[in-house]
Amino acid sequence: MAFHLVGMGVSRGIAIGPVHVLHRGELEIAEYHIDARDVEAEIRRFREALEIARAQLREIRTRIPENTRADIVEFIDTHLLMLEDSTLTVAPEYLIRSQQINAEWALKQQRDALVEVFEAMDDAYLRTRKDDIDHVVTRIQRILRWGGEAPSESTTTALLQGAIVVADELTPADTVVLQHQGIAGFVTEFGGPLSHTAIAARSLRIPAVVGVHEVRRLLREGETVILDGRRGVLVGDADTVLLEWYRERRDAERSRQESLARLRAEPATTRDGVRVRLLGNIELPEDIDPLMEAGAEGVGLYRTEFLYMNRDDLPDEEEQLEVYAAIIAHLDGLPLTIRTLDLGADKPLAGSERHALCANPALGLRGVRLCLHEPELFRPQLRAILRASAMGPVRIMLPMLTTLEEVRQVRRILAQLQRELDDRHLPYDPSLPVGGMIETPAAALLADRFARELDFLSLGTNDLIQYLLAIDRVDDEVAYLYDPLHPAVIEALHRVLRAGDRHGIPVSMCGEMAGDPRLVPLLLALGLREFSIHPAALLEIKDCIRSLSLPERRLPDHPDPDEILDFVHALAGNGESSA
After folding, report:
1. Are 271 and 546 in contact (CB under 8 A)?
2. pLDDT class for 476, splitting at 50, 70, 90?
3. Which listed residue, of 228, 345, 452, 476, carries a Cα 20 to 30 Å from 249's Cα?
4. Greater confidence, 566 or 401?
5. How far is CA 25 from CA 101, 169, 227, 477, in A?
6. 419 Cβ partners below 8 Å, 6+ apart?
7. In the CATH scheme, what is the code of domain 3-22+155-257?
């Protein structure tokens, strides 16, 4: 009889194949003292393990095809940089000398000390950094235990071809290697949708489910399972009928993805003639090619944080301008929405005066708050954006707004910078649109007032839902509470969209909700007419829009929770949504 294991689907697709269980995470770390005369030999052993780890990662990097997204390469580069960091290279040597202990024990102590700092935080990015430390340390520990031939590198392609890999966790490097060894999909006991491994899986188009606790204990090596990356389900002991049904779904999904290519040049228009604008979210200049190939009408969200990360200095005005100019040229007249720096207390920057970690960075000095707190960090970016606006259609978007005074402060800074550019005879667009992200409950409640002072609004549903429902979306203990159909979420979206209508300004959505085909009928019914999504999801969303007619039913201006639930159920009942 079939059984279902439920986790979080982080990369869509259906995979069917035999289980291959990786037990690499089950490391027993030896802890023992050594004689003083053996200390230098132990340090040499540790240094040799570090060098082998570097060589392994460099080899993995060479296997990555040239057309692979730059963020996948950056994950590997980040781990290589960590192998040069003194906190993982010098500190364990000090522990070996001072305590006269073996290398494994010293490395474990240093890992525990670093992870303790990150686990005290409650932010998604910090959790990701903790995972990176674990990945790098585990690689070194395997080498210390088994030498250069750690199981992750010695597993043969023949064994993995078409398999569903089951593991405690996987690193981005593991994911790249496994993809080239032909796996059909993977499932892990831990992890979340924002982890680097999840991002790598989506970029590499590997069906994946994470957060399935005890999955290695429940599955047998070689048994055939079904992995549904869209629904976050793993099915075991399936009979012939169920297997055939999933095979048909898998084949239909593959055929559908191939057929979506015909929509690239088609407009996103509903069957009853309502025009919808589809924009793309990007993080790196290299993301422009897939965005253009998918037929996007511009960039609705350019995350500029990647200009500031994994470096020892800050990008100056000229460097930022060069990057913006290259993207504008590539867009060839399509609009570019640049979100100002959205880092914070959890991610201190080189060159920034503020380096202390705060107790709750998700509620701390981040986004526009940080930028206004440190104008010398903010002003070069604003000057670069202003100068870039002379080269093509550019919009500026402010993250993490909670007060109208934040908008007014930014406008005052922009006015001052415009005067400076005038003095230098440098061109810019004097009517550069300034918009804001609605991603805090305060901004949603004050949407009408923000709409009076901004040129456009953008719904950042990832954080908005997290803050509205008071849950950490990457904590798998409470991830089930992350519900985009919660009445409070629907009412907040409705309020913001009505505010945009009243004041005649566009409202887009750049969060994960916009890229979920199941939610498209609901979002259209609420009045959303501008989506900004990952390029990989754009054609699927366009196909969904083109297959729909707008429902006649509308929410009242001030709906109560029962009316919202009735509204959602009515859409689902009419076949207009399967969410």
Report:
1. yes
2. low
3. 476
4. 401
5. 23, 7, 22, 21
6. none
7. 3.50.30.10
Tell me: pLDDT of 160 over 80: yes
Residue linked to tokens 């409705």:
494
Q: What angle do CA 463, 469, 471 make, to 5 degrees?
A: 75
Residue 85: CB partners within 8 Å, gap ≥ 6?
none
- Residue 129 pLDDT level (bands cut at 50, 70, 90): low
CA-based angle 49:52:55, to the nearest 5? 155
Rounded to an integer, the average pLDDT of 209-222 is 90
pLDDT of residue 494: 94
Rounded Cα gap, residues 450 and 461, in angstroms: 17
Closest by alpha carbon to 392, among 334, 431, 435, 339? Answer: 334
Residues in the chain, how many?
579
pTM score, whole prediction: 0.71
pLDDT value at position 440?
Answer: 96
Query: Two tokens at 108?
Result: 């474990």
Equal fold, 36-152 vs 265-573: no
In the chain, domain spans: 3-22+155-257, 36-152, 265-573
Distance CA 100, CA 33 (A): 6
**Buried/exposed 151-172: b ≥16 CB within 10 Å, e otherwise:** ebbebeeeebeebbbbbbbbbb
CA angle at 418 for the pair 412 and 419, rounded to the nearest 5°: 95
Residue 569 φ/ψ, nearest 5 degrees: -65, -35
- Average pLDDT in the 374-399 region? 97
DSSP string, 153-167: HHS-HHHHTT-EEEE
- How far apart are alpha carbons 377 and 168 in whole angstroms? 40
For residues 303-307, give the mean pLDDT.
Answer: 87
% residues pLDDT > 70 (the chain): 87
User: Mean per-residue pLDDT for 339-344?
Assistant: 85
What pLDDT is stored for residue 576 in this prediction?
Answer: 44
Q: Which of 371, 494, 510, 544 is labelled catalytic?
A: 510
Q: Could you give the CA distance from residue 521 to residue 527 in angstroms, rounded to a whole number?
A: 10
Look up 486 and say whether it is catalytic. no
Q: In a 3-state reduction of DSSP, which class is residue 236?
A: strand
Residue of 196, 494, 534, 544 with catalytic role: 196
Query: What is the fold of 265-573?
Result: TIM Barrel (3.20.20)
pLDDT at residue number 151: 44
Distance between CA 206 and CA 204 in Å, rounded?
A: 6
CATH topology of domain 36-152: Enzyme I; Chain A, domain 2 (1.10.274)
